[in-house]
Predict the structure of Alpha-carbonic anhydrase domain-containing protein.
Amino acid sequence: MASPELLLALGFATLLASNAIAHTAFLHAMFPLGFSNQQSRGALEVLLFLWLLMLCCLVLWANLVWIQGNAPANWGKLSPDYKTCSIGTHQSPINIAKDDVSLQNKLHDLHRQYVDANATVVNNGFNIMVRFIQNAGYMSQDGKHYRLEQLHWHTPSEHTFNMKRFPLEIHLVHKSDDDKIIVVAILYEYGNIDPFIYQLKDAIIELAEKNNSNVSVGLVKTKSFRRHTRKFFKYIGSLTTPPCTENVTWYILGKAWCDGPMVRLN
């Protein structure tokens, strides 16, 4: 029997898909001369893919809550290894309030050197993850290198700015040789699909259709993540899913991304 949460997630995703179709029809009606049938089909495909990604995340969340009988607030009860989720004192995510942020001129720009690498898309029970099976590059902090090991999505965003939540958040998880963790978070506004996400379309569809735990995607291009970054927010927190490990360094980019012009976080 399907859980109420799962049925709600499926209903919500169906509504989103309907909105995607309506949105494409609206664009075609508004721009009859400048919006070709091919562009219309392309826009619809992009929108439907975004809704599919959101559906996967919603179903994962709904099934976790139903099967385990626990919401994230009770993760610490699922296993002794997850106790930090309940008793931790520096847990993520957080709300970033403009009045609480201080400017630190001594912080260096984020130095990231990513390369294309083979990867698999994984359903780990908490989110959809891209796990790199080859060297995907690194970021550096204070002379130490942190390998890019995996990235995953949350929809809607986990972090908020002045209580504003964004449609999508991507976490790039890095780890050093002594197991220290840095996460770079990127928030997304609605717009054209991001090229990084779109290259994974077929693998995510297969993951959803076949109920697989992992799907190979071959070579994953990381070019879109190599942008120079000067504006960001830094704090010390935790992983946002079990085991909720603390002493994680977070960098949240200070601009929301989309495939068109970036939108400042105001």
Summary: The chain has a mean pLDDT of 76.
